[in-house]
Amino acid sequence: MKSFKLRILTLLVLVLISACQQNEPKEDTKAFKVEFEKFTLDNGLQVILHVDKSDPVAAVALTAHVGSAREKEGRTGFAHLFEHLLFLESENLGKGGLDQMSARIGGSGANGSTSRDRTNYFQTVPKDALEKMIWAEADKLGYFINTVTEPVLAKEKQVVKNEKRQRVDNQPYGHNSAVINSALYPEGHPYSWEVIGSLEDLQNATLQDVKEFYKRWYVPNNVTLTIAGDIDIAQTKAWVKKYFDEIPKGEAIPKIKKQPVTLKASKRLFYEDNFARAPRLSMTWPSVHEYHPDSYALSVLSQYLTRGKKAPLYKILVEDQQLTSNISMYQNASEIAGQLMLSVTAFNQTDLNTVAAAIADGLKDFELNGISTTDLNRIKAGQETNFYSGLSSVLGKGFQLAQYEIFAGDPGFINEDVKNILAVTPEDVMRVYNTYVKDRNYVATSFVPKGEINLILNNSQLANVAEEKIIEGAEESFDPSLTATYQKTPSSFDRSIEPEYGKSPELNIPRVWKRDLASGIKVYGIENTEVPLVEFEIQIDGGLLLEHKDKVGVSNLLARLMTKGTKTKTPEELENAIASLGAQINAYATDDNITISGTTLSKHFDTTMQLVTEILLEPRWDEKEFELLKQSTISGIQRSKANPNSIADNAFSKLLYGDNNILAYNNSGSEASVSAITLLDLQNYYTTNLSPQLAKMHVVGAIKEAVVIKALDKINTQWETKDVVLPELPMPLYPEHSQVYFYDVPGAKQSIINFGYPALKVTDKDYYPATVMNYRLGGGGFASILTQELREGKGYTYGIRSRFSGTKHKGEFGISSGVRTNVTYESASLVKSILENYGTDFNANDLEVTKGFTIKSTARAFETLGAKLNMLSNISNYGFEDNYAKQRETIVKDLTVADVKILIKNYIKPNQMIYLIVGDAATQLDKLEDLGFGKAILLNSSKNE
Q1: What pTM value is reported for the model?
Q2: In whole angstroms, what is the distance from residue 886 CA to residue 131 CA?
Q3: Phi, psi at residue 610, to the nearest 5°?
Q4: Count of CB atoms situated within 10 Å of the CB of 27
C-alpha cells in the first residue's frame, strides 16, 4: 500500500435486492441500479463511467489486472513494490508531482492497494480537477518507467520493508497468514507466497526486473479505468481519449487458469510469537474461487457458524465453554482459488486442543440441525444493507464496477450476482459444508506466546518463519537528491502542460434541521436520499469522565452490555430482531460519552428505533452476559500488553495527564479494575449518569424530520431526567523541559515513537488555525515535511504524521510513527530538527499549498453519510454554526505567513515535549541521550514500576 492513510480494501460487494421473507410484512424494495457506460479504446483500455450528481466530486480509479499471483518465485512482493514506485514520479508531472498536485487540487490523496490478483490506484477530487486527474493517470500508465533509477528503487525498497515490519513483523500473529498459505498451496502456486513478499526477495529486486514487470503488465490492454461522480459523459470521454489513446497496446495478456488445491492430508503447524499474549488456533480448508457457484453458500455458512448468539460455534466456544470471545470465519475467494478460514483467539493459558474439540462439537451441532430459512433470510437482509453502504461514495461505486469488469468479465454481472445470492437455500449451505469442511483435510496453525508451547495443538510441527535480524548500519544507502536523466517518451502533444481547472464547484453544505425535545434531548438531522439508508447515533455525555480511578471500565462494560438483551428480549432474541431487519445497532463508550449508533434501511427505521428504545430504556442486566463481557475485556487488555502501538498509546496518556487525572486511563480499564467491577456498578452508573439532558441524536439519510421525531416519542416521554454535572478536569501544563521515556519490547523490529504535549481544546479559537498550520508539518500526508524527510528522504519509516486532536474537555498535539529499529535515534533527532526549524523555514509557497488543499478539499467534505454524521456531531458538541465549513474557508483565505509563524511559535514546542519510544532497549536506549534531554527514563524496569 502506498500510504499510511486509512487503507481502502477492494469492495467485493455482495449485491442483494431483497426478496426474502421477514417476520413481518414489508413493501417490495425498489430496484436499485448503478447505471454505467463502458467503452474500449483501440489500445485495449477498458473505461467505465458512472454519473452521480449528489456531490461536486469525481473518483478516478486505475486498476491493473496484476497482483502477487503474476510474480515469479524469487521476486515475491514485486507487484506491491511496483505499486509504491508508480506514485513517485512520471515524465510530465516530475518528481513527487502527483502528490504535489493532489495537495493543490484538494484531493483525498493519491493512494493504492495490491492484492493477489490486482493493483489499483485511486483518488477522489473536486470535479473541477477531473481533467488533471485523467492527465496524471495517463502519465502514470504510459510515461513512467524512464523515471525509475537505482536510487529511487533503493529508497522504495526501504519503505516497503518498513511496511512489512509494521504490518507483519511487529504485530501479534503477524506471520500467521504466511504460515497458512505456504502450507495450503503447493510450492510454486501463485498464492503460496504473501502479497507483501519476503524481505530477501524485495532486497534482490533489480532495476531490470522493474522495467520487465512494467512492460509486461502495465499496458492499456491489462488495465481498467473507472470514473464516477459529477461528470459530463461526453467531455470525460474526450479527455480519456486525448490522454490515453496513444499509449501503445502491450502483448496479449493470457487468462490465468483456475488452480484449486487439494490437501492429501491435514497439516498442523505451530509458532511461538514474540508479540502474542494469548493462543490463537486457525483452521483453513481449500475452497473455491470467487464467483464460483458454491462461493455464495460458503459465505453464508461462514457467517452462520460464527456470528451471533445462534451460531453453533459461538454457542459452544463463547457461551458454554467460555474459551474465547474472539471467533471469526470467512470465505476468502480469489481469482484462481479460495480458502475457508476459521480463527479463534482463545483466552490466556487456554489449551488449543480444548478449542479444537469445542470446534468439532459446534460443527457436529450444525450437521444435526443445519440452517433454517429464517436464519438464511436474516443473513441476506444484512447483505442488502452492506450493499447500499458500499455505494455511499462515488469511489465505492467505481470499485464495484471495476471488480465485476475484471473478475466477472462484465460490470453488468451485478444482475447475475443478485440471482446467485437469492438462489442460496438451506440445502446449499449444508451441501457446501459436506463438500468442503466435513471430514476434509485442513491446515491448522497454533500461534502461542513465547514459552507456552504446551498450549499448541497435538502433533504440530514447528513452522518455518523467517525472522529479520536488525543490524546496525546494514541497510543500503541512497541519495534521494539525485535526479533521473532520461529521454522523454514521444507524444503527439506537449504533455508537460498541466490542464486548467474546470469551473469551480460551489461548496454544497447540507441543510440541517434541529429540534429540542421536552425531555432535553437535542435532535439534529440531514435528509439525503442518495441511497435508501439511514445512519444515526445517540450520544450521551459522560463516558470515562464520570468514572472513578479505582474502577475504570464501568462505562465501557455498560455500553457493551446494553445490546445484550432487553427486559422483554433475551440476548438472542434482540440480536435476531436487529439482524432480521438487516440493521446494525452498536453501543460503545469513549472518554466523554456513551453512544448508541446504528445503520438501517430507511423502510425499517421505525422498527429499528423501537429496538433502540428498548435498549436504552429497558436494559436486561443479564448476569451471564456481564461475566462474558468482563472475561472478554480482560483478555483484550492482556493481548494489548504485547502490542507496541497499544503500549505506546497507554503509556503516553499516563505521561501526559498523570495518575490523578481520569483521562490518563484507557477506558477499557486494567485487569485489576475490570475484575473489581460488579453488575451493581453498571446499574448505579446507568441510574445516576444517563440522562436525556445530556443526550444528542444525530440522524442522516433517506428519512424525514417528522418520522425521526415520531420515532423518538417514547424515549422523549419516558426517559427519566436526572441532574448530572460533568467534572471540570484540570488541563495538564506543558512540560518545563523535554524528557525522553523508553518502554522496552525486546526484539522489536520497529520502534514506535509517540512525541507530544498538552494542546488546544477543539473549542479554542486557535484550534482550527493550528490544524491548518500543521498541514505542511505532518498533517498533509505526502505533502508534509515529516513524510518527505523520514519516508521519502531517508527510508526510515512507512509513515509518520503529526496532528492536533481535541474535544471540549481536552487537547493534545502528537507525532506518531513506526521507524526501523536501527535508526531510532536518527529518526527522533530528525523529527526534533524539523520541529525546531519549522517556524523559520515556513514560507509563502508552504502557505499556498496549505490554502490550496484546505479550501479545495471542502468540495468532498460531506460526501458520505458518515461525513454528514460527523458534521452534525461538530455542530451539536462544539457549538459550531451550520455553515462552519464556509467560516473555515474564510479563516484559511485570510491567513498570512506571519499568522502561521505566530501559531508555530505558540503551539510547536520541541523543547517542552514528551518523547516516548517503545522498542528494543538493549540496542537503542543509550543512544537517545544524544538528543540533549538527558538520559532516557526506562518505564518498565523494576526500579520504575
Answers
A1: 0.86
A2: 26
A3: -60, -40
A4: 6
